[in-house]
Each structure stands twice: as structure tokens, then as C-alpha cells.
Design a protein that fits this description.
The structure holds 2 protein chains of 2 kinds. Chain A is α+β, with helices and mostly antiparallel strands. Chain A is built from 12 helices and 8 strands. Classes of the chains: A alpha+beta, B alpha/beta.
Chain lengths: 358, 134
């Protein structure tokens, strides 16, 4: 049978991000998928050579809008590790609050796009309508809807007052109720089940071997979440990784739904245990040494490698984002599937290409 | 020291000779480690490659110093998922990985007209004239 090579992306109606794949097809079946990156490559890591280590916080936040605060947190905790800085407990809990808000709005954003991929436009708007509540919370607490710039080396630069905490908890109660309704609509839908159950199955062994991370890994039954490391205040909260076992597109969706509820629970715990005290400590000097810092972003494990030699500028900053690692499993899932399933399969890894290409 | 921001030192980082990079990677795999990623930096006359592995949240690193202009074996035969990061480092630092199953020849992120390795302070690796876009 004659083979056809089909360019998929970087511009495609169903793709939220400019991923570019060369799909080799036999009839309507994908036999090979080759990625091509670079469409939004900005060379952010290179900026470490001309921006000092404090200015780099603003730059790493712009690696990705959807998980901006987590990039900054990962970077700051790396520098704090190098400079042996102990962050105040209150700042650690506040970091958890903003991190979980990010996770909730990121998963809601993804669920909307997922619904849109099926042609459920009303559902798409419902997901994003609920997400707007979280965006309002982010704007009220940080001054910005998307780039939540709260992290500094040594803590955070904004506090959350008790009355704002109450408003956040009330809003989260509403969000929880609405997401529960949404979950019933999406997960019990015949069309959704038909196009996700048993589609794009990644076994536990292959997920581990291919370096999958985040919900992509946990939906295949591997209980691994960087929050288990106990960074920020996670070691002081009751936390268990959300795990599903089927490894298909349905399981990945379910995993993200349950992580929204878990995020809400973690924010409640963080506010309940929020200690009084300072929100940051003054840090003097310049970092020296090498460090690897890891956090769990909505899409999975994010790794920062920082090398500093006591100079104004860092020697090297390397960012490994979760989507970069989830590309390998995606390339394994695509061969054998129908062309019509490609958009949904790509979406189930929750690709963030702006993160990946940096 | 906390475990989430692990400062690399002699306890968790081992330096291995370039010719043993594959066999050491296999030891990591056989003992249940997963490949996390690779980091790299320019040392002037060599490239510092650091391979990161994880097992049950315990991060270990393997350091290899590759003199500029020399090649190193790809570890994709052991960890297939190293393919993309090796291509990235090849493009950014000019390290030649031998045995890459898919070699983007420096066109992974960058266009063909880019002739320098951008992360090296001095570009040392020119793309071959017949580099084909994959």
C-alpha cells in the first residue's frame, strides 16, 4: 500500500499548541510519527548568560503561562538549595496554594480543549467558565491572571489575608460542585467513552521505560508524583498521588479530574495549617555550585539544572519540561491508530509546546 | 540538604569515562532507575554532560566530560527516551552522539541556515553540508 506523509501542525484547528508532527500513513492508519520542534523556540535558557539570577525568575515564569508559578518555584528552590536558604514556613504553604491553583486551572483548561476536540463546544465553554473563577483568584492574590509572579529567592512576595482566604475557600467550594457535575457529564458520555476507552493504551512498564511523567505516567498505574518529595509544604500536608491503572485516554482524563479535587483539598489543608510569620527572608550573595531542582507541574515532573560559579550571571540554566518527556510515549502511541484519533491522542498528553521548546 | 533541590556532589554524581557511558547506563537501568534527562554545559575545551536517573524519587547523576570535536555513544539502545534530549544537545552544544536512531542533524529546533552551536561560547560543530531536514 502506498504511504503518504502528512504534516500535522504546527497550525491545526484542534491543536491548542503548535506541535508539529510528520505522520506517515497507510490508508487512514498511522505507521510512523516524527516530531519537529522549533516553531516557538525562544532560547530562554541562553538568557541566563546575560540576566542575573534574580532577573531570571521573571524569565523562567514566561517559559509557560499555564504553569508560570511552578517554573519560578522550581527555579527559586534550586537557587535556595545552592545558597542554603531556609524559606519561612508561611511562604512554603503559600507556594502550595498558588501551585495548586495553577494545577486546577490548567486541568480545567485542558478539559475544555478536550471537550472541544470532540466537538462539544458548550462543554468547552462550561470548563473555561469554571476556570475563570480560578483566574479571578489568581488575579486577586497576585495581581495577574496568567503570569502569577509571587516567588522570590527566599520565599514569596505577597501574602494572602484571612478575608481573601475565606473568599478563596468559598469559591473553591463552588468550583468543586461544578467540576463534580462536569465530571458526570464528560466521563459518562457515550461518545467520550467510545473515543477514549481502550484508545492510546500505555502500559505501566512502557510508561516507565519511555520516561512518561505526570498524569500520563500515573494513569498507567505508576505512583510517582514529585510532590512526594515534600517540597514547599507538601511534606506537612496529607498527600497521595492520584493513580489510575488502565493507561488509556479515559484513564488520563479521569486522573486529571481527580487531581482537580485533590488540588482543592490541598489548598484547604494549606489554609487550615497556614502558620503566622514572615513570608520571605533576605538573601545576600551569589550562588555557587550545581543543583537539580524538581517540582510537579500540572503536566508532570519539571527539572531545572542550575550551574553557578559565584558570578553575577549563571553559568548554565537547563529546563526540562514535562511535555518534552511525554513526547516519547506519544510517538509510541500514535503508530497503529486511525488518523481521526490523532488529535484526541495528542491532547491526552496535555502538550505544552511553548514549555517544551523554551 | 533537601531532596527536591539536590546539590550535585560526589555522593550522588559519579564521573565515568566516555567509552563506558552505555555500560553504566545499563547498570542504572538494570537496577531499576529511570532516565530523567541530561544536562550539559560548556567547559571551554570540553562539554560537560550529566545524565540524571531516578529511582523511587532518589536522583542520581552520571557525569561525562566529552572533549570538543570527539564523539560519544548514544544511550538510546538502553533508554530509548534519550533520543530527543541527545538531539537537543547535539544541536545546542555540537556533541556528536553515535548511534542515534533518528538524527535530526541540527534541525531539531533550529533552521538549517543556523550554522553555529548556540550554547557553546565558541561554535565548534558545523552542520554537514548535506544535512537533511527530517
Amino acid at each position: 500500500m502506498a504511504r503518504t506523509t502528512l504534516p500535522f501542525g504546527p497550525q491545526h484547528p484542534v491543536l491548542p499548541e503548535p506541535i508539529h508532527l510528520s505522520l506517515v500513513l497507510e490508508d487512514e492508519i498511522v505507521v510512523e510519527a516524527i516530531p519537529k520542534l522549533g516553531y516557538v523556540h525562544r532560547g530562554l535558557e541562553k538568557l541566563a548568560e546575560i540576566r542575573d539570577h534574580n532577573q531570571m525568575i521573571q524569565i523562567v515564569e514566561r517559559t509557560c503561562g499555564i504553569c508560570s508559578t511552578l517554573h519560578a518555584m522550581c527555579y527559586c528552590q534550586g537557587i535556595e538549595g545552592l545558597m542554603d536558604v531556609e524559606v519561612p514556613d508561611r511562604a512554603k504553604f503559600l507556594r502550595v496554594v498558588w501551585a495548586e491553583m495553577h494545577r486546577i486551572h490548567s486541568h480545567l483548561l485542558w478539559l475544555g480543549l478536550f471537550a472541544d476536540a470532540f466537538g462539544f463546544e458548550s462543554l468547552f465553554m462550561q470548563c473555561w467558565r469554571i476556570r475563570e473563577r480560578i483566574m479571578d483568584l489568581q488575579e486577586a492574590t497576585s495581581g495577574n491572571r496568567v503570569i502569577v509572579s509571587v516567588n522570590v529567592v527566599g520565599g514569596v512576595k505577597r501574602d494572602i489575608k484571612p478575608e481573601t482566604q475565606k473568599w478563596i475557600l468559598d469559591t473553591l467550594k463552588l468550583v468543586e460542585k461544578e467540576v463534580q457535575q462536569l465530571k458526570a457529564v464528560i466521563m459518562d458520555d457515550y461518545t467520550v467513552k467510545r473515543r477514549t476507552v481502550g484508545i492510546g493504551v500505555l502500559t505501566k512498564e512502557r510508561a516507565f521505560e519511555l520516561g512518561a511523567c505526570g498524569p500520563m505516567l500515573r494513569a498507567s498505574g505508576v505512583e510517582q508524583d514529585m510532590r512526594q518529595l515534600g517540597y514547599a509544604a507538601y511534606s506537612m500536608l496529607d498527600f497521595h498521588a492520584v493513580v489510575e491503572t488502565d493507561g488509556d485516554s479515559y484513564a488520563r482524563t479521569l486522573c486529571r479530574f481527580n487531581e482537580i479535587f485533590q488540588g482543592i483539598d490541598l489548598i484547604r489543608q494549606a489554609f487550615a495549617k497556614l502558620p503566622e510569620g514572615e513570608i520571605n527572608v533576605k538573601v545576600k550573595g551569589l550562588p555557587t555550585g550545581e543543583v537539580v531542582s524538581r517540582v510537579e507541574q500540572p503536566r508532570g515532573e519539571c527539572v531545572y539544572y542550575i550551574k553557578a560559579t559565584g558570578k553575577k550571571f549563571l553559568d548554565r540554566l537547563r529546563i526540562r519540561t514535562p511535555t518534552f518527556n511525554n513526547l516519547a510515549p506519544l510517538l509510541e502511541l500514535l503508530p497503529g491508530c486511525e488518523l481521526a484519533d490523532v488529535p484526541v491522542l495528542i491532547l491526552t498528553i496535555d502538550p505544552c509546546i511553548s514549555c517544551t521548546e523554551r | 540538604m533537601n531532596t527536591y533541590a539536590r546539590v550535585l556532589n560526589g555522593l550522588n554524581t559519579s564521573t565515568v569515562p566516555t567509552e563506558r557511558v552505555v555500560s553504566f547506563s545499563k547498570i542504572f537501568k538494570d537496577t531499576g532507575f529511570r532516565f530523567v534527562t541530561m544536562s550539559s554545559s560548556d567547559l571551554g575545551d570540553a562539554i560537560d554532560l550529566i545524565y540524571h536517573f531516578d529511582k523511587d524519587l532518589d536522583l542520581r547523576s552520571m557525569r561525562v566530560i566529552v572533549p570538543k570535536g570527539s564523539a560519544i555513544s548514544s544511550i538510546t539502545s538502553v533508554f530509548a527516551c534519550a533520543l530527543l534530549v541527545e538531539n537537543e544537545i547535539k544541536e545546542h552544544f555540537g556533541v556528536d552522539f553515535e548511534g542515534l536512531p533518528i538524527d535530526f542533524n541540527g534541525t531539531f529546533y533550529l533552521d538549517e541556515e543556523v550554522q553555529r552551536t548556540p550554547f557553546c561560547k565558541i561554535g565548534i560543530a558545523k552542520k554537514p553540508a548535506d544535512a537533511q531536514e527530517v
